[in-house]
Amino acid sequence: MSPSNLDGIGMTSARTRERLIERLRAQGITNEAVLERIRTVPRHLFIDEALSSHAYDDTALPIGFGQTISQPYIVALMTQALIDGLEPGKQIPKVLEIGTGCGYQTAVLAPFARHIFSLERMQPLVERAKTRLRGLKINNVTVRHADGWRGWQSQAPFQGIIVAAAPDTVPQALLDQLDDGGRLVIPIGGSGAQKLVCITRDGDEFQQRRLGLVSFVPLVAGMD
């Protein structure tokens, strides 16, 4: 992948990205490492070329199959919540991601995790994400075609879980696979009435903190 592809031109340029960072700061994103990652990950490579002029708008965009790439603010907010308190240079040992999609959230999160285990229910998106992550030399991610409702039991426990689709209630499998002291960032609720929450495990207790209102595609059981 050539440097020109990574840097982008015109509406995908450094100046356009900087405007996005300023907007995220104004909306309350304070973690400088997260902001730098949003600045440097080439979001225009994760969407169709026809939409590249909107790559650094703070908006969700279609990626096919009824799915979207999340808006940068939400990606930054979820990442910031998951790594809150993480010392500079440290990594979360194991993170489970539900809903790989195009791989953008995965790419943003990659430096903050020793390894990401990412599940995607749609096979064509799995292959696209793998190709894109390889092209960006992101090698600490394992992407699997699987049902996110079930998590990834063989790799549990996870110190972090991040979910990019909304169930009505938190799947029990994800709570069971969350390590003691670990965090789960997940949208909950039906269409038009979702809240983003951060759940921290303390033994058999789960403490929930609300992060804001969001709009995600539903978390669907099964695979396509």
Describe the structure.
This protein has 224 residues and is α/β, with parallel strands linked by helices. The chain has a domain at 62-214: Vaccinia Virus protein VP39 (Rossmann fold, 3-Layer(aba) Sandwich), CATH 3.40.50.150. Helices cover 29% and strands 28% of the residues. The protein has helices spanning 3-7, 14-26, 32-40, 72-83, 104-109, 123-135, 172-177, and strands spanning 61-64, 67-69, 92-98, 113-120, 141-145, 158-163, 178-188, 194-202, 205-214. Strands 5-4-3-6-7-8-9 form a seven-stranded mixed beta sheet. Strands 1-2 form a two-stranded antiparallel ribbon. β6 (158-163), α7 (172-177) and β7 (178-188) form a beta-alpha-beta unit. α2 (14-26) packs antiparallel against α3. The chain is globular, with a radius of gyration of 16 Å.
| Overall pLDDT score | 92
The class by helix and strand makeup works out as alpha/beta
Task: State Rg.
Answer: 16 Å
Strand content: 25-35%
N-end to C-end Cα span? 30 Å
CATH-assigned fold name of the domain at 62-214: Rossmann fold
- Outline: globular
Task: Please provide the count of β strands.
Answer: 9
Helix content: 25-40%
List keywords for this structure.
single chain; 224 residues; 7 helices; two-stranded antiparallel sheet; 7-stranded mixed sheet; alpha/beta; Rossmann fold
